Amino acid sequence: MKKLAISLFSLLLLSGCKEKKESAEEVPSTVETNVRDVVEENRDPVNTEENTKSFNIENLPVSDKDLGDFPFFSFPEGLTSTNKPVQKKFDMLYFPIDGVMTPLEGKVWKTYVSVKDNSEEWSLHYFIKSYEDAISKVGGVKIFDGEITYEEYERYHDDAEYLGEDGSIGYMGQKIKVYAIHRADGGNIFIQFCGDSAAGNLNVLQQEPFKQTISIIKSDKILKDLEEKGKVVLYVNFDLDKATLQPNGKQAVDEIAKALKDNNQLKIDIQGYTDNSGSDEHNQKLSENRASTVLNTLTSLGIDKSRLSSKGFGSQNPVADNSTEEGRAKNRRVELIKK
């Protein structure tokens, strides 16, 4: 009986220990869950807001400093351009804004920067410090400091046809700093720069709207040139890198149709040309499609298709220098040849 009592006591003792052990094992799980909940509830909301906040230059203070003439900033003492700076009255550059390569339009200036006459060693820190200080003093605000991702580079770089020009920025691995200067007149300024152990890159863009300088040739002039010269050169506006007509491009084709209706014996060959941006294969196809668009639009306006033919010549036979924006604009043309 005594042995039975001891056995029962031992069994109860073990059962109690087991219950305590199981209870103890449950506590860490509950504590862990509660701590995780507290951490989630107290996670810094500012970081989330910053990650989703979009850049708007209108939120920056306006700078009324007299910046002088474009491109506004001289070279730091001892540094100079290592090439003839690329300067364009109107072009497009990509800037990393909110980590996304964003196209901006306006005046453009780009160059490589290095030491003058190899008089001393190149200092990347000196180059960056000089421009950061100078830009900040005239009201510039840093809006990006980092590298573009591989995915972002793959997404945008085919559209950045200027990559390869001297001083260009936007390649993988470049540590890019971008500043913006908010101007009251709308001519906002964006500066980006980067560098390595040998030299630096500097880009300046001042925003301004595109100004159309090509006028539409009227039907009487088209007809006169075709009858007297056997040829007329037209600037028919298409959507960027496409064969779809812009509204004023449609107006130009309307004038061609009027000329052909005024002389219903006239037959023409429509020849499309591009600038040298992009591959030869791409340019050839684009020029063919654009010439075909003009032909199809003319037939939709009542011109007999038997009077028309179309060809594309890509970037062949340029009439101007493809190294300038003005030259490239002149090379993007449609020629009408009397048959």
What does this structure look like?
- There is one protein chain.
- The protein is α+β, with helices and mostly antiparallel strands.
- Helices cover 36% and strands 23% of the residues.
- Helix 5 (219-228) packs across helix 6.
- The chain is elongated and about 70 Å long.
- Residues 1-52 have low confidence and may be disordered.
Kindly report the oligomeric state of this protein: single chain
**Biggest beta sheet attributes:** 7 strands, antiparallel
Structural class category: alpha+beta
- For the secondary structure, the number of strands is 11
Entry keywords:
339 residues; alpha+beta; 8 helices; 23% strand; elongated; disordered N terminus
Secondary-structure map:
Elements (H helix, E strand, L loop, with lengths): L1 H40 L3 H8 L26 E3 L4 E12 L2 E16 L8 H14 L3 E6 L3 H7 L19 E6 L7 E7 L4 E8 L11 H10 L2 E4 L12 H16 L5 E5 L7 H21 L7 E5 L12 H7 L2 E5 L1
Parallel strand pairs: 9-10
Antiparallel strand pairs: 1-3, 2-3, 3-7, 4-5, 5-6, 6-7, 8-11, 9-11
Helix pairs in contact: 5-6
Question: How would you summarize this macromolecular structure in one to three sentences?
Answer:
By secondary structure, the protein is of the alpha+beta class. It is built from eight helices and eleven strands. Strand 2 (86-97) and strand 3 (100-115) form a beta hairpin.
